[in-house]
Inverse folding.
């Protein structure tokens, strides 16, 4: 079922990112808040490794049911057991569940072998993030908002339609260039985690971030469709160029360039799998590659504390456009996805 990996990635993202919008309600120290937000990233990598090692032991439907149940249970526990030791433990497990669910979703999407499904699956991040932001704005309470993650259990009938046996293969360690491809494509997403604070200190509401995420969602489907008409390497260079220039301008204070930065920057993720295939990334090891690259999300947002945002904007622009260096000969080597 083509929509299932998209739903799975969106649900995993929703449960994963929602606490980052609400952590201030817990009254924790800055260090404790940072740990609540960052510790799940380590769990993501663990989960993706577990999927690569043991994923074949269950069918996809069985795995989805198990992970949806885990997400719902962890959301309820997090909403009720409000203490730092409990939350840090739950958040680590949430990261593991995200690693499993995202790996499952990418496995199914890449086995379906449809660029729009693969791009849309990665678009689950933008969908989940947007829904989490809206929830936090409406339910200004840790307990109420976090408990909404338990509603994911209602998706069981939809997730259970159709099935796919997970092949037992030796996943292997993703190539460094494969991981780097995803890492560079995630730079805009890493940078956007700073956008709410940057807007606030410049006197703007962070609502514009939500609007830009909503506008970015269609790009996860439009760009993969375009990659059938335009060489994926050329398309990557164009999209990375737009994201790079608009990212520099946004962090230089031209606020409304946030919209093209978000649309092009997040949309870049949707064509990355086509490029990553050139470096040996496949359905089995894509989860490890993605969640290894995502560790940059812990480090990257710390950079502005060491410099002015005007200097940071140059780093954003340069590192976003750097993915262009990985697309040489893509036409010959990275077009194994069919439709």
């Amino acid at each position: 079922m083509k929509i299932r990996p998209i739903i799975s990635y969106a649900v995993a993202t929703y449960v994963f990112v929602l606490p980052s919008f609400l952590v201030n309600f817990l009254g924790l120290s800055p260090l404790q808040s940072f740990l609540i937000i960052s510790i799940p990233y380590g769990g993501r990598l663990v989960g993706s490794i577990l999927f690569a090692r043991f994923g074949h032991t269950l069918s996809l439907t069985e795995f989805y049911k198990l992970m949806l149940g885990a997400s719902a249970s962890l959301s309820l526990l997090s909403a009720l057991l409000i203490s730092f030791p409990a939350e840090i433990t739950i958040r680590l497990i949430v990261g593991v569940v995200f690693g499993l669910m995202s790996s499952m979703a990418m496995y199914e999407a890449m086995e379906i072998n449809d660029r729009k499904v693969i791009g849309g699956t990665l678009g689950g991040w933008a969908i989940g993030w947007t829904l989490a932001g809206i929830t936090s704005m409406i339910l200004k309470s840790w307990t109420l908002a976090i408990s909404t993650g338990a509603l994911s259990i209602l998706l069981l009938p939809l997730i259970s339609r159709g099935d796919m046996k997970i092949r037992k293969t030796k996943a292997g360690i993703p190539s460094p260039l494969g991981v780097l491809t995803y890492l560079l494509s995630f730079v805009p997403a890493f940078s956007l985690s700073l956008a709410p604070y940057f807007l606030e200190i410049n006197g703007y509401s962070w609502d514009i971030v939500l609007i830009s995420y909503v506008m970015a969602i269609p790009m996860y489907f439009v760009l993969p469709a375009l990659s059938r008409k335009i060489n994926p390497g050329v398309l990557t260079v164009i999209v990375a160029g737009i994201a790079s220039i608009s990212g520099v301008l946004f962090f230089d204070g031209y606020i409304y360039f946030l919209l093209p930065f978000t649309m092009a920057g997040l949309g870049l993720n949707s064509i990355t799998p086509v490029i990553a295939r050139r470096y040996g990334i496949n359905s089995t090891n894509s989860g490890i590659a993605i969640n290894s690259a995502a560790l940059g999300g812990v480090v990257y947002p710390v950079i502005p504390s060491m410099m002015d945002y005007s200097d940071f904007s140059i780093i954003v622009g340069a590192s976003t456009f750097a993915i262009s260096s990985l697309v040489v000969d893509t036409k010959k080597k990275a077009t194994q996805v069919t439709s």
Remarks:
- Confidence is low (pLDDT under 50) at residues 330-339.
- Residues 84-112 form the longest helix (29 residues).
- The chain has two domains: 1-168, 174-331.
- The CA atoms of residues 41 and 295 lie 6 Å apart.
